[in-house]
Amino acid sequence: MMLSRVSARLPRCLIAHSRRLYSMTPQFDESEMFGEKLEGKPYKAKRLNKFDYDWTKDVKHQASQEEIESRYVKMMKLNAIFKGLGLFVLIGGGATLYLSWPNIKSKYIILGKSNQLPSDGSEAIFAKKEPVLVGNVSKEGTHVLMFGQMNKSTIPKAIKEAFNKELKDLIILDDKKKCLGVDQAGNLVDILSDDVILRGQKLEQLKLSGKTIYALNKDGKILIIPVGHIDNLSKYLDYHRSWLFPWRKYPVYNNQIDINHVFNTRKGEKKISQFDVGKDHLVLISNHGKAYTCSTDGSDGNKESFGQFGIPYFSKFDTFPVAHELHEIEMLNNSFDQSGNVISKSIEQVACGDYHTLARDSLGNLYSFGWNRFGQLAMPISYKSESIPYPKIINGAFNAHFPGANALDIKCIDLNCSAETSYVTMKASPKSGHIVGESKKAIDMNKEHYFAFGNGLEGELGNGIYKNSQQEPTRIKFENAKPVGDIKVKQWYTGPHHVICKLDDGRLVAWGRNDSGQLGIGKKIKQSKPTNVPAVLLQGQSKKLSDLSETIITLNPNERVFTSSSTSCIYNY
User: Fold this and answer.
1) CB 498 within 8 A of CB 492
2) Can you list the domains of the chain with their CATH numbers?
3) CA-to-CA distance for 420 and 371, rounded, in angstroms?
4) Which of residues 165 and 48 earns the better pLDDT score?
5) Each residue of 450-491: pLDDT tens digit?
6) Above 60 in pLDDT, residue 121?
7) Which of 129, 81, 84 shows the shortest CA–CA distance to 105?
8) More confident residue, 133 or 225
9) Average pLDDT in the 356-369 region?
């Protein structure tokens, strides 16, 4: 029985063993083995590799060409989106770093000594690198104090050549490194060389537009003085004999702005009472309160108006006006009453930026016209309002700053302009027939309110923010100046991108661009809020910047300030 079972299993074992042996034996193609003998030449079987195999034949849902292209487009879109986001983050980070760079530098570096950070800590930096400032102002006599690019100083320093000089006005030509002034006799003099450039013209005030100086004299006329001919003005002089002393001759400067063809001389309109200039325009007020304008640089074929003349037919689409040819700003000088009749207005003050103009009338109405790229007209920034060629009243732009504005009469009492920024002083009073209630937000009717609008990228707005454009009026933070109290500005001095104000107590505060030290605060870091100008260092005195910053300069009533693009001066008049 047992033997029969073994004999029955034996064939299966042998078969299984033979299968395993067969699976391990090499496999041959018989055609390859016998092909040469049968056909007389070798035969090679074709074997497919992985590259020849059709891998898609077993895919049930093979993607169409359209689906492949759709997926590719989606991937490209996602790639573009991520690249755009990366670029946006990079630009935003760079802009933030640029705007915050003055604050970053101020923590580690005091400019003027080093722009590089040493390897040691910030405490060691201040201990080693803080500059010691030395004064040169003597106690005796009067001085012209300069600070900025021209004398390479970040604090007011005396100009030796101008010792004991009292001036009616002063102007700096940065490109020519000249400092011109009007002496007490009304002569135009070179302060640094003590040369008399123009004698006997009874000059009172100087303004610079482009490459031309405009000088207002005591007779109410504006003289045109080309900077290129500053050393040879004799060709503009005529000599007349005195009626009272016929044996004497006096010089008459014949290059003047002609007012006779536009002024109403029959009604006594014969003099210019006030004027200001922009980059290529001039606006003046006659003794009758009428406003007139002209270009200061004739068209060379490439000039374009930005509406700064306040005359619609001198818009950006029209021909640029002829230089020094006066035109009345009729839309500023006149208005309509409720019956539609034309009534005249009295213009009291004008101020010019590079390409925009502000004006105020005797009723306290504030007007703006010209370029509005940065909001310097206090109007919405848009393509349609980028250039406004006619005067518009903007008093309503200040209502948000005065609670109960509907019951208040908000008036402008002063205005000034830098290159692309406007500064106005407003005052509120109750309208007739209205009673202003008492509340926590009640406005002090005796207080003056100071506003800025326009370009603030260099800190010109004075509100603590570096901002490229500001169309809504923003309050200037004078409270940043010490000591804190009721601030009242007595005089404004505006450069293209920085401002210096003289307060009623004689203190000076400054803000804006400071790349050359033109703020006079001892360092070259721009300021976004009014900052006190430190006291003048007398001859032999020396102080560290940290110690000097604790002091405050105080000007006498007869001291003024002049500001150019990169240099400022304090002088006696």
Assistant:
1) no
2) 88-130 (no CATH), 136-572 (2.130.10.30)
3) 9
4) 165
5) 999 999 999 999 999 999 999 999 999 998 776 656 789 999
6) no
7) 129
8) 225
9) 97
d(CA 31, CA 345): 117
| Pick from 126, 133, 131, 130: nearest CA to 155 | 133
pLDDT over 80 at 19, yes or no: no
Distance of CA 488 to the CA centre of its chain: 25
What number of other Cβ atoms are within 10 A of residue 295's Cβ?
23
CA distances from 572 to 171, 515, 560 (A): 13, 26, 6
Amino acid at 181: G
Structure token digits, residue 40: 């007389």
Average pLDDT over residues 37-51: 61
Peptide bond into 42 cis (omega under 30): no
Cα–Cα distance list, 543 to 110, 155, 561 (Å): 14, 11, 24
Q: How far apart, in Å, are the Cα atoms of 98 and each of 92, 93, 103, 459?
A: 10, 9, 10, 13
SS3 label, residue 385: coil
Range from 208-212, 400-404, 542-546 that averages highest in pLDDT = 208-212
Looking at residue 65, its pLDDT comes to 73
Concatenate the DSSP letters of all residues of 413-447 into one string. EEEEE-SSEEEEEEEEEEPTT--PPP-TT---TT-
Which token pair is 368? 């703006």
CB contact at 8 A, 555 and 505? no
* DSSP element (H, E) containing 18: helix 2-24
Residue 430 and residue 474: Cα distance in Å, rounded? 22
With a CB cutoff of 8 Å and minimum separation 6, the contacts of 189 are 180, 181, 182, 183, 195, 196, 197
Q: What are phi and psi of 466, to 5 degrees?
A: -90, 110
Residue 196 · residue 159 · CB < 8 Å: no
Residue 3 has pLDDT above 50, yes or no: no
pTM above 0.85, yes or no: no
| 157 to 29, 37, 150, 500, 522: CA distances (angstroms) | 107, 115, 11, 17, 11
pLDDT in tens, 274-325: 999 999 999 999 999 999 999 997 555 578 899 999 999 998 888 899 999 9
Amino acid 519 reads L
Chain position carrying tokens 């102002």: 137
Q: State which amino acid sits at residue 98.
A: Y
CA-CA distance, 308 to 151, in Å (whole number)? 34
* pLDDT of the residue at 122: 43
**Angstrom distance (rounded) from CA 491 to CA 562:** 11
Question: How high is the mean pLDDT of the chain?
Answer: 84
According to DSSP, residue 115 is labeled S
Alpha-carbon gap, residue 284 to 275, rounded angstroms: 4
377 burial (CB, 10 Å; 0-12 / 13-18 / 19+) is buried
d(CA 545, CA 130): 7
Please, which residues have CB within 8 angstroms of residue 369's CB and are 6 or more apart in sequence? 307, 308, 310, 356, 357, 377, 388, 389, 390, 391, 392
Query: CA 166 to CA 163: how far, in whole Å?
Result: 9
State both tokens at 30.
């018989």
